[in-house]
Design goal:
The chain is built from 15 helices and ten strands. With 340 residues, the chain is an alpha/beta fold. The strands form two sheets. The chain has a five-stranded mixed β-sheet, with helices on both faces. Strands 7-6-8-5-9 form a five-stranded mixed β-sheet, sandwiched between helices. The two termini are 41 Å apart.
Length: 340
């Protein structure tokens, strides 16, 4: 009798988890990301390493690519379900007739840094000096490319007047700068901090600083987020909610974490061989990471202005800003996890 009572009690305790797992339309899914080691995507890694995805009943595979444009192609091509990528891709694809929607924010500023190579450009004076130069980005068409084009456009330099070179988001980018293969770089941490500390980078524009990012873009510029085809969001609302829950918990965990906790939470290879550099990079980027996953209301309009400034073909495009993102899932996640 006692054994039977214990069995009933155990089953009752297990029921909520079972019911939750059953409620997910697609518990096993793939998230594509361009440069998983970047602090830009730290909430994604934290959600994975701290078990937040598993706690929501999700079995997530993270497919890592050289840049955000390649991660986007994985979802468009059907080899991944969701992208962890730059917000502006949702609007850019809207202009091409593809409906994608962002549903949880990881970064409230782009965290992208544009800097020159002191070895190949020792006499650098202004942005005009970059005309005709080689600029390294994570991958052509990625948000690092957009940022470079946007800053150059302010100096009257067209995308066709520079050479864009894909260098990745890790040691390859560092090596390209140190070898003098590129004259400037548009990249993220920890690459930026590593190059800066070794004297291989002179910063021109730094959007890790929220106030500077707002100044560069003329308003709040949403950065890393999770986005998916609208058809996926419509078909799998419980799954999307679970993903939003996990990322909101990660966003909040990061804001309350110290550098030592971050070091323990990320894989060793993220550190690029230098823990002190990664800690410095984290402290530089922390303020640009989202505290709660919410998209700013003016963010989509800022992203459209940025895209239109670098692509004349988009100037007359009518964008549906509300269709590019939703805060519906994030609001529910914040209610469920007010403290992370």
């Amino acid at each position: 009798m006692q054994r039977r009572t214990l069995l009933i009690a155990t089953t009752a305790l297990a029921a909520p988890a079972f019911v939750r797992a059953q409620a997910l339309e697609k518990p096993k899914l793939t998230i594509a990301v361009g440069g998983k080691n970047l602090l830009y995507y730290l909430p994604l890694t934290i959600a994975e390493t701290q078990g937040f995805f598993k706690a929501e009943g999700l079995d997530v595979t993270i497919a890592d690519f050289a840049g955000g444009s390649q991660a986007l192609r994985a979802v468009v091509g059907g080899s991944a379900d969701v992208v962890s990528g730059a917000f502006e891709h949702t609007l850019n694809m809207q202009s091409k007739g593809q409906a994608l929607r962002a549903f949880v924010l990881q970064g409230r500023a782009p965290q992208i840094v544009l800097g020159i190579n002191p070895k190949t450009m020792p006499g650098y004076k202004s942005l005009a000096d970059l005309k005709g130069k080689k600029i390294g980005v994570t991958a052509p068409g990625s948000s690092t490319n957009v940022m470079a084009n946007f800053v150059l456009a302010k100096a009257g330099i067209k995308p066709s007047e520079v050479s864009i070179v894909g260098v990745g988001a890790g040691n390859g980018a560092v090596a390209a700068m140190r070898a003098g293969q590129i004259d400037a770089i548009s990249n993220l941490d920890p690459v930026i901090t590593l190059l800066q500390r070794s004297g291989d980078l002179k910063i021109i524009s730094d959007t890790r600083i929220v106030a500077e990012a707002d100044k560069v873009f003329g308003g709040p510029m949403p950065a890393a987020c999770l986005y998916a085809p609208q058809s996926f969001v419509d078909k799998h609302p419980a799954t999307v909610q679970a993903l939003a829950n996990a990322l909101v918990r990660a966003d909040k965990w990061i804001q309350g974490a110290g550098a030592g906790e971050i070091i323990k939470a990320v894989p060793e290879n993220y550190l690029l061989g230098d823990r002190a550099v990664y800690i410095d990079a984290f402290m530089a980027a922390k303020g640009a990471l989202s505290p709660d996953g919410l998209f700013p209301e003016a963010g989509a309009a800022t992203a459209v202005r940025a895209l239109q400034s670098i692509d004349p073909a988009l100037k007359d495009t009518k964008f549906d800003l509300a269709a590019a993102y939703t805060n519906e899932f994030v609001r529910k996640a914040n209610t469920k996890y007010p403290k992370g």
